[in-house]
Amino acid sequence: MFLRFLGLLGFCFVSRRNSTDLSDDVTWDPHSLSIFGQRVFILSAEIHPWRLPGNPILWTDIFQKVKANGFNTVSFYVNWATHFPTTSTNVSQGDFQPGTYRDIQVFIDSAKDADGETTGGGFPGWVGNIAGNLRDNNPSYQQAWTPYLTAISRIIAKNQITNGGPIILVQAENEYSASTSHNIYMQDIINLYKATGIVVPITFNDQHGGAAGNFSPDKPGTHVDIYCGDSYPAGQVQAVYYSDHVAVAPTDPLCLAEFAGGELLGWGSTPFGGTGYEKICTPQMTFGGTNWGQTAEPTSYTSYDYGAGIRESRVATIKMNEMRLQGAFLRVARDLLGATLIANGTNYTTSSLIHTAELRNLNTGAAFYFVRHDQSTSTALTTTRLNITTSAGHLLVPSSGLLTLNGLDSKILVTDFSAIMTWTTIDSVDYVLLFAPAGQTGETAIHLEDPVLNLSESLNVSSRFANGLLTLNYAVGGNQLISIQDGSKSLGIIVLDKYTAYSWHAAVLARDGNFGNYFSIGSNDTVLVSGPYLVRTALILDDTLVLSGDLNGTTTIQAIVPSGVTKLTWNSQTLTVSKNSIPPLPNLSRNKWKVSGSLPEIDPDFDDSGFVTANLTSTNYTNLPPLAGDHVLYSQQYGFYGGNLIWRGHFNATGEETAIVTTVQSGFAGGYSAWINGVFLGSSQGSSTVSFTTDTWNLTSSVLRVGQDNVFVVLQVETSTNSGKEPRGIRGYAIVGGTAKFSLWKLQGNQGGAANAPDTFRGYLNEGGLYAERIGAHLPSFPDSSWSDGTPLANSGGGIKGAGVNFFRTTFDLRVPLGIDMPVRLSITPSAITSNFRAQIYLNGWQVGKYINNIGPQTLFVLPAGILLRNSTNTLAISLWSLDGKGASLAGLSFVTDGIFESSFPFADYLAPDYADQAALRPSPTFNPPM
């Protein structure tokens, strides 16, 4: 699912180019994918658009950063659960826009599978209610998925590359195994794709590095066009992908549809602080984003940063600098796409600690030596020399000095490789950029006829020319240009240390047409720019190089441009710009807060006639059946698929009742609290490793209303599900002592359930069943003037005084100037670990964070730019649920920024529907005294 590579290795012979027989725009052979006949190395970035909520224009910000940092393709997951809250929902073009940004290719995964660490594995909650297996040849399941996939496929078809759109590949299923029934189901998907007009290649992602060959076109039976595998080496590089691939899919290029070294963090997995992902050095996602509302699976918390190259706050990290260096090389190393693996091992170098893979293009003679530590997780400093085979014979390189690998270091050494277009040609000068860690030495040999060079201004550079080979030796540090004239040819060798190379960009100069900004397909022209944090676009207009992008500090911008360019603009300004002053972030401890109690349902006289009656007696969740009780109390069967649930069980007490036993299934890090007739009985605090608990709640005669209706209330937090067949709710219940039984169960989740949620913009997964959520108190413009003054903060004497829930509201303004990007996060200071409470964070109506004080780890919560208002008033709300009778409060709450960036991106406030737009669809609000 994450970093996707296609076309890395191939065979040594010329093979027939394959197509879908429906279009020749995208073809393939054992070497690589080809687009419009041009071989392309597919370097794809994994992005889940729904995890950047609010304003879809922010997707463009991410796509531009992805492209500017070396990627040429995006893997775009579509989430069935967010689009189909009920069986009859229709996906609209506005909900799913694969053509939003047309300057990068798109690899679509329809996400009709249990994956993506999202609630239900991407299945809508109602899908689990059907009889039989999911992801199988099950008529009930086919009836469920066909409307969704039909709607999505029609949108995909309109946006294929054949129609001028960006989509080049579509994935049919994910991590799935062939069998008699599975094959029928898989063929049904393929048939539907084709019936709805999809003509680009259909792919499949197999597990275990792609060694099994499920649905490979080179095996009999049901098959896709291009077979892919996935692997999670967790830092230790594997060397088996090529041989495994050849064994099962020899007519396809090697495709790794999921390839990553990062790891998912779960509840309580790291100490409190940040998002928990700050120390993850290897990326899993290119951009992970935020698990807003109830979109996460139970093992995941709010942040889905995943150690991504572009952080959850949209800030590109040093990992993206690394990807830019690799991507800039891979996109112009055309010889690599026709190369085959000759051999690999530790026998290429003078040190057995070093592993080398030799790839060679047998048509052009170009060779690529990939060098790394044999144990790729090694942090040792190792020196060696490398045996290579070239057109000039067998050589031991470097001829002077040593090859140095320092820790998690690797190098690509090329031989018989054309220097032209290694990065770019500007006017008649071929520019080649070389880099290595500072302090190391480099050696480069170039075939020339009669080179002339002046090294008088070059530091620590020496050269020698013999037998048509110019050899340069140099020390790496900073940057320096070595100019070489060879007859009528001009070369510019730019030597950079790696840190300096991070600030260099090879920006594509766009041409006209639908694909004018795709490198190699629409334009082969680039310009070299150094200095900026991000170069979004580059264009030459007459004598002016027009650049747009972002700066993260005072920066000198340099560019190597054609001779006709005499002027340079940056974001429509000259290079000398003055930053606007940034106002200080608001101080939340000084803000005026409003508070109301948010659990009126524990009152035995609360009118629950509007709640859903839970009276079903059968279930299709045969894998996790009810354990005790007369009725099935599974929330999904009543149309509630996420968030807080409120159960009210009624019984007539005889006075002999001594306890109530409940088994509640909430998922990992779930929990619940119980009351009888308004009296707090206790809580199941939840655990990061336990999905359900069985608890006994002792009763005394003083809490019972003998001969009258007694109300047992459970407030449950549901942490979504791992897969479609995993219920949430009360799996078992019983009254101990006497003969009384529960005569009625009532249930309330989010207002209107999934089918009739009043907020169709944010969707049914944004809210839960808390009273404040149901009445819309989390939304802007909600009338809170009758609420009490009160704060969630401990230092102001706020919070909640006993067990239960209080809901807090405040407003703030940022006033961010035009041309500035200022990512903002909300920081919660943890209270003592013995304080058992949970908080939910709402920004302008969106639930953007879940905090559990006794589990953690997350304390920093991104306020997504598509939701945060820059120059309008923001509404911040917090629900505070104490699971102990002693109450709880927040030790601290503040805003922090991840940096100030001068940006060309057109940020603008995006005003979503507020309370006034939904008031008629919600209960009339009533103020409840704070608990």
Task: Explain what the structure shows.
It holds the Pfam family BetaGal_ABD2. Residues 1-19 form the signal peptide. One of its GO terms (biological process) is carbohydrate metabolic process. The chain is mostly beta strands and 931 residues long. The chain is built from nine helices and 54 strands. The chain has an eight-stranded mixed beta barrel with strand order 1-5-6-7-8-9-10-11. The chain has a six-stranded antiparallel sheet with strand order 45-34-46-52-49-50, with no helix packed on it. The chain has a six-stranded antiparallel sheet with strand order 35-44-37-42-39-40, with no helix packed on it. Helix 3 runs parallel beside helix 4 (180-195). The radius of gyration is 30 Å and the shape is globular. Mean pLDDT is 91; it is low at 7-14.
User: How much of the polypeptide forms β-strand, as a percent range?
Assistant: 25-35%
Question: Strands of the biggest beta sheet: in what spatial order?
Answer: 1-5-6-7-8-9-10-11
The residue fraction in helices comes out at under 10%
Globally, the shape reads: globular
Coarse structural class: mainly beta
Low-confidence stretches: 7-14
Mean of residue pLDDT values: 91
Q: In DSSP terms, counting alpha (H) and pi (I) runs of 4 or more, how many helices?
A: 9
Radius of gyration of CA atoms, rounded to a whole number: 30 Å
User: What's the N-to-C terminus distance?
Assistant: 45 Å
Q: How many beta-strand segments?
A: 54
Could you describe the largest sheet, including whether it forms a barrel?
8 strands, mixed, barrel
